């Protein structure tokens, strides 16, 4: 289901409530309603969608990856559950602009591999 959060379109799973969402400072869709619900305040939409699909609480040491890198697209077909060690996308961000770059370009610019890069 598509909703509007902070004036921008966002996709959430149809089992989640249609209201009470906002954008975090990092751009993730989070639940902020004070209404008593099955969701706790501060729950991220992509984590809630994975928990709803699997029927289990979110496992520690795991990460939900957005395949299209759009944090507002929380459609189940766009989410992949992976081990934290395999999530290398934050490490490939340029420290100044925040844009993603290849590992070769990162090494060329900054002289070393990113700290979280897994070879």
Distance between the termini: 37 Å
**Sequence stretches where pLDDT stays below 50 over 5 or more residues:** none
Q: Kindly report the oligomeric state of this protein.
A: single chain
Number of helices: 2
Assess the beta-strand content as a share of residues: 15-25%
Order of helices and strands: EEEEHEEH
Helicity range of the residues? 10-25%
Number of strands: 6
Strand order of the largest sheet: 1-2
Shape: globular
Main β sheet profile = 2 strands, antiparallel
- Overall number of domains: 2
Q: Give the mean pLDDT.
A: 76
Q: What's the gyration radius in Å?
A: 16 Å
Look at the helices and sheets and give the structural class. Answer: alpha+beta
Key traits:
20% strand, alpha+beta, 119 residues, 2 domains, single chain, globular
Overview of this structure, please?
The structure is a single chain. The protein is α+β, with helices and mostly antiparallel strands and 119 residues long. It has 2 domains: 83 residues, no CATH class; 32 residues, no CATH class. 15% of the residues lie in helices and 20% in strands. The protein is built from 2 helices and 6 strands. The strands form 3 sheets. It has a two-stranded antiparallel sheet. A hairpin with a 5-residue loop joins strand 3 and strand 4. The chain starts with a strand and ends in a 9-residue tail after the last helix. The mean pLDDT is 76.
Brief sketch in words of this structure:
By secondary structure, this protein is α+β, with helices and mostly antiparallel strands.
Annotate the secondary structure layout.
Elements: E1 2-5, E2 8-11, E3 21-23, E4 29-31, H1 45-54, E5 62-66, E6 79-83, H2 103-110
Antiparallel strand pairs: 1-2, 3-4, 5-6
């Amino acid at each position: 289901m598509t909703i509007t959060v902070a004036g921008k379109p966002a996709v959430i799973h149809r089992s989640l409530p249609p209201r009470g969402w906002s954008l975090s400072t990092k751009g993730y869709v989070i639940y902020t309603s004070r209404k008593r619900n099955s969701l706790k305040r501060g729950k991220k939409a992509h984590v809630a969608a994975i928990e709803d699909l699997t029927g289990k609480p979110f496992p520690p040491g795991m990460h939900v990856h957005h395949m299209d890198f759009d944090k507002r697209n929380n459609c189940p077909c766009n989410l992949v559950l992976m081990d934290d060690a395999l999530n290398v996308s934050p490490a490939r961000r340029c420290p100044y602009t925040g844009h993603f770059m290849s590992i070769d370009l990162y090494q060329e610019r900054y002289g070393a591999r990113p700290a979280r890069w897994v070879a």
